[in-house]
Every structure is written in structure tokens, then in C-alpha cells.
Model the fold of this input.
Amino acid sequence: MGDQAVGFIDFILALSPIAAVLILMVGFRWGGAKAGAVGWLVALVVSLLYFGADTTLLAYAQTRGVLLTLFVLYIIWMALVLFNVVKEAGAIEVIADGIVKLTGDRVLQLLILSWVFSAFLQGVAGFGVPIAVVAPLLIGLGFSPVTSVAAVAAGHSWSVTFGDIASSFNALIAATGLSGEVLAPWTAALLGIACFGCGIAAAFAYQGLSSVKRGWPALLLIGGVMVGTQYLLAVNRLWNLAGFVAGLAGLAASAIVARLAFYRRRREMDVETEPIDDHKDISSKKCKSMPLYLAVSPYLILILIVVVAELVTPVHEFLNATNIVMEFPESKTALGWVTEAGVGKKISVFGHAGALLAYTSVAGYILFSVTGHYRPGAVRRILTSTTRSAVRSSIGIATMVGFATIMSLSGMTYALAIGLSQVLESIFPFLSPYIGLLGAFMTGSNTNSNVVFAALQQQTATLLSLPVTLILAAQTTGGSLGSMLAPAKIIVGCSTAGLSGEEGQVLRRTILYGVIITAVIGVVVWIAAA
Done:
């Protein structure tokens, strides 16, 4: 099937698991666990009856899916533990009160957390951490849970490609055989456009165009700093640090912007009179029992641990010396789709992002304990709250990953991509970021999207005489934006925001943002390729 044309029936059937999940989550407001189970069942049946999969291939797919699920759940469970460690001590309210004191402007508060701080966390931690950690902070400020998750999901997406020590960008390099020096300029340029789009989407998630209008100075100034920093580092062979340092520069710029007269005038009146998304303003709560530096200390510890673990080579090598690894043999469908033999998702036991969150949780618990901020029974309440939130989310992630791996190994994913390029060949440059978006939607990962689709995009661009580096930049930019509408990541955010089972509410917002921003990228690519 590798080089064959994809017919209409092939395309529709390959699309059916994704369509089922979208219809159920967006149209019928199903939770991720139920919708994912239906998507998994549809993928199983279609792959068996039409795409030539057999029981052996499906067993390999599910085993690969289990490894990927464990990789993801390691982050989710530990992020929930950290959240509950902080929440149980009462630190969430103190942090929220501190941000209100930095700026009483609601829109700027939202942008600093959902767009800037979440991008920094993406730069140093990767999958799931920004949305799991930042959404509860916004809820503590008084933003509604749906607004909080949607704003962070949209706000951090631009930083995914160069985030987590550029893991997605390195996957793009590996999948295409091209050098980072060649790929970086267009990639950084398109992600720069996406950065402004994601900031606008985060602001819009609050009060629509009025909050975008209120936030434009911050969007322009902070966005310019982050985009410029990321671009300069990426094109100067420092792409592994581009996302992390861009987020750090954005935080520094935020502190300056918060002092501008535009955001400081009538600060108290802004807090009292602007609508606050169905929640009481956190600034009305007098949180004097804990100093701000102590409240934020677990997050500072997290930053320190992640930076050391990722950037200090001896520490990085030591922590990543022990891994859970499984080799898989070659698999082949009856229609000829081949998945080469190789290693499944490798899980670093002590260097994984989940492990780093665990270390932070222990340190945070000790810190709050010795300073007397826990009531008796804190451990039991922390573990109970974590389990209650994580179980349903874990089921949802397992089913989502399960249908994604079935689609990948059975050739359904490839059929979708090749079918899209066939049908809209004349406007393929506009379409190319949507293929990246599709891959991230299915797998929850820009890295996986690049692994699955980068070679296809490269081949198609060559056949159509299009600029290869531009099309590949569109691929990874679309994959980065796909983070805001990937069900697996939406589930992560909803699990810490008390929205388990209500992921469809968030997805209805973020899918609109993602489609629009990706369309802007597509237009830019189409014009540049002409």
C-alpha cells in the first residue's frame, strides 16, 4: 500500500476512528474515556476487516500502546501528586494572590500564566506538564475551569517543537535526514507566527475580542521577545535551548510589561469590576499565613530539577541510565503495509518528566511539612485526591493511545495523509500544516507526528517541486499547534482542573483556535511556496 493511490473508501474508513472521537466529544459532549473506547473499537474493526491487520499485528500495536500509555501516565499521575501537595498546603491561593499583586489586570494575569509561564514549562519539561500545572493556578485566580484549560492548551502550543530540549525538532531531523541548520530558519519563523496566534487565542478564551484588545501591548511586546529569542537561538545551532530560553526571556519581559502604565492604572478597579468567569476573585482572600516565596518554592524546585536533569550532562546521563525498553519485530498487513522492527517507546525510570515531578513533589511535601502548613492526614488526602482525579483520565489516555497505535501499524494513518495530499494536491502547501496537526491530534505528540508524517511530507514536496524545508517547517508547526486539540493533552488538563469526563467542552473551544491558527500558517506557507 506504501506507494499506491488511496481511494475514497480507504480514506473514509481510515478517518472513521478520528471522526467517531470528534463527533462524540464535540457533538455529544462525551468524556475522553468513553469516546476513546469507541475510537479504539472502530479502529480495531476497520483495521481487521479492511486494512489487512491480523491478531499478531494488533497485539504488537497494543503492546506499543501500553508502553506509550505508561510514558504519558507517568507524567499525569506525578503532576497530580504535585498539584495536590501544593493545594493541600494552601499554596495555590497564595500564588494566585501574588500574581494579582504583580498585576491586577485580569487579561495580563491570564497571558503571563497561560502563554508565557506555560511555554517556559514546556521548554524544560515537555508533554503534559504545562497544562497540568498551570490550569489549576488559573482556577485559583478565579478563572473558570474550562477557560483555564482552554487558555493553557492554546497558549503553550507554539513552544512544543523547540520545547523539552527540542525533542520534536530532533525527531524531524532524524526522520528526514536533513540537518538542523537547514531546517531551523523556516521552522523558527513559522513558530514565531504561531506564538502570536496562540497568545491571541489564550486572551480570546477569556472574554473574546475585548480581552484581545486589552492584551495587545503585552502580546506584541512579550511575544516579540519570545519569538526573537527563539529564532536567534535556533538559527545559531542552539535549537536544544531555544524553547527553554525563549520562555525564560518571556517571563522577564512579563515583569517589565506588568509595570507599564497601561496595565497599572486603576489596577484595583480592574480587579473589582471586570467579570471573573463565575468564580470569586482570589484577591479577596487574605492569604497571610504563608509567604509567597514559600508558596512558589515547589515550582522553583521543579524548574531547578528539570534544568539540571536536562542540561547538566553527567546528571542527565546518570538519571537516564535505567530504561524500560522493548524490542518489536517487523509487522506487515495483508495489504503490504510494513512497520519496521525497532524499539517501542523508551521509558527512563529516573530521568522521565514524571520522575522529575515526583522528586519535586517529595521536596515540596517536606518543605511544607517542616514549615507546619499541613493538617493531620495530609498524605491520605493527597493520595485520595490524586487517585480520584487520575483514574478516569488514565482510561481515556489508554484508549486514545490504543486506537492511535492500531491506526499507525495498520497503515490507516499513512492512508489518511496520502489521501489528503492527493485530494488537494494543488493547494498542498496550505494543507501541509494540517497533516502535522492531524498527527498530533491522533497521538498527542508533535514528536510522533514528525516521526509518522515528516518523510511523507518530504517526499510529497519533492514530487511537487515545493521547497522541502518550508513544507517540513509547516509539518512540525502544525504538529506543535495540534497540542491544543489533542484529546490526550486535553484529558491531562481536565484531570487537574476537576473536569474529568467534560473534555468535550474544552475541545470545542481549542479545536476552533487550532484550525484558525493553522490556516494562517497554511496561507503563509502557500504564499512562500509560490
Remarks:
- Residues 266-288 have pLDDT under 50 and may be disordered.
- The longest helix spans residues 55-88.
